[in-house]
Input
Amino acid sequence: MNYQNSLDYAKQLDQQDSLSYLRKEFHIPTDKQGNEWLYFTGNSLGLQPKHTQKYIQQELDDWANFGVEGHFEAQNPWLSYHEFLTDNMAKIVGAKPIEVVVMNTLTTNLHLLMASFYQPTKTKYKILIESDAFPSDRYAVQSQLEFHGYDANDGLVEWKPREGEELLRMEDLESILEEQGDDIALLLIGGVNYYTGQYLDLKKIGELGHAKNCMVGIDLAHGAGNIQPNLHDSNVDFAAWCTYKYLNSGPGSLAGLFVHERHANRKDLPRFAGWWNHNKETRFNMRQPFDVMSGAEGWQLSNPPILSMAAIRASLDMFAKVGMKALREKSEKLTGFFEYLINQIDSDQIQIITPSNPKERGCQLSIQVKNADKSLHKKLTENNIITDWREPDVIRCAPVPMYTSFEDVYRMVVVLKKLL
Ligand SMILES: *Cc1c(COP(=O)(O)O)cnc(C)c1O
Output
């Protein structure tokens, strides 16, 4: 793309954008005077679609009108409510419906998946993560090691960027596995790194891990609704992601879980059980011996919170209508424009650490500002620009194709330049 650095040009891109109508379908937060924020933190908490309220209200009404009978009598019967989400969620992550379920929250799902897929032995027990993994994933993995009786320092293997670099190199993963693969039981990797925005080649990670008989799991918290992963074809064993970031489903909303089809009928896998992963035909007979369901549904434990699922349903209906392909096309253009404008700032102080190849990133750009501190973030906020600050010197900004305009991006960079 040959972008231009002007407000008129940004406005022109908005006019040409066939998805620009979507912005009006979201609540955009404003300051006290009613000026809209420039919202760049959809990677932390996505904005609320206006129709979400209607979806939740429907369930509140059915609860008021039917009480417990709502499990069967509600317009969208609660008993099978999670099934309304499966097909659309499967499309978003490139999976088959049998491979996907919405349940619990992300870190909980990672633990439940590790209960099944982290089966350490005396010699093969280590877990590999990326060195700047999201803290929750690191803690989860450390606690799994300790739970199984291993020393977390000894058991944790880190895939690190090279000295002086920020991004991970696949050939370094290859050499770690070459040297230590026989000791490693599990790879748990963020598919899109939360800090750098780097989108890793999931299929390659799967191949490298499997070549050493490791299980391979992917955290897609920063991928779902952002990039178009092909979880099924990537052949990884499992994945989990939250729905409150790019999937706009509300604070603390439920998470997604993927288990590859080849494990769908593996009754031999150890797993935790509850009534919700018991065969739904006989679930309410209550006294049957445990009979686990096939596919991803076989990892559920509890009957799920319908009000949260209603918000997810509202969001997924939007994603289904627009399609990830169109969103991704806009996203590449929007982030490309953002990158172009930042590179136009003539300053040694500022550097984008996210990969410049659009195939190796989602919408987020992580901007490193040398010698800056959190006061820069504060000043951006005072200018109605909502970004995320990561110590020591990185601003993470996510122009989200559903509700961020080219004009937002232009205005943001004008302010950033002024503040530098
Ligand atoms: C956001 C995020 C989490 C948060 O976990 P919760 O269980 O939803 O609180 C965990 N891991 C990654 C990689 C994330 O981006």
Summary: The chain is about 35% helix and 15% strand. The mean pLDDT is 97. Residues 57-320 form a domain with the Aspartate Aminotransferase; domain 2 fold (CATH 3.40.640.10). The first strand starts at residue 38 and ends at 39.
